[in-house]
Every structure is written in C-alpha cells, then in structure tokens.
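Journal club side-thread
Mid-discussion, someone asked how the predicted structure for our own chain would compare to the paper's figures. Pasting it here so we can look after the session.
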Amino acid sequence: MTVLRHPMSGALYTLRDDGLVDVENNGLTGTFHFNGQFETGELRQADPHMLMWIAGPQLPAADSIRRNR
C-alpha cells in the first residue's frame, strides 16, 4: 500500500487497491479519483498534484523504455 504525507499540510494520501485515494487531514477523511473527482467523505478537496503523483498513470518500468542512441 502506497502512502504519502503532504509536505505542507501533513495530510495522508493512501492509494487503495481499487485505484482510489483516501485522504486524511485533521481528523477529516475523503476519497478521490486520481483526477481530483470527489467520491465520498467529509473532506471535499485534496491536492490534485498529490492525487496524480500517487494514483495517476505511471511510466513503464525502466527496462521497457526505448531509448534512442
């Protein structure tokens, strides 16, 4: 399970198995899609950059990247 702490607010961003992100900040929680769309909870906003970082489309593994030489 991937968990990141926001460097300024201290909020915890936790990637779930279904691809959604749980955010916990000051006792409030909310669930979001990687694009910032709110899903559920009392926390209604989250940092879009953190959501993309933890749950957005990922680059392929370094082994599968084709490099021009």
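Post-session note: The CA atoms of residues 52 and 68 lie 28 Å apart.
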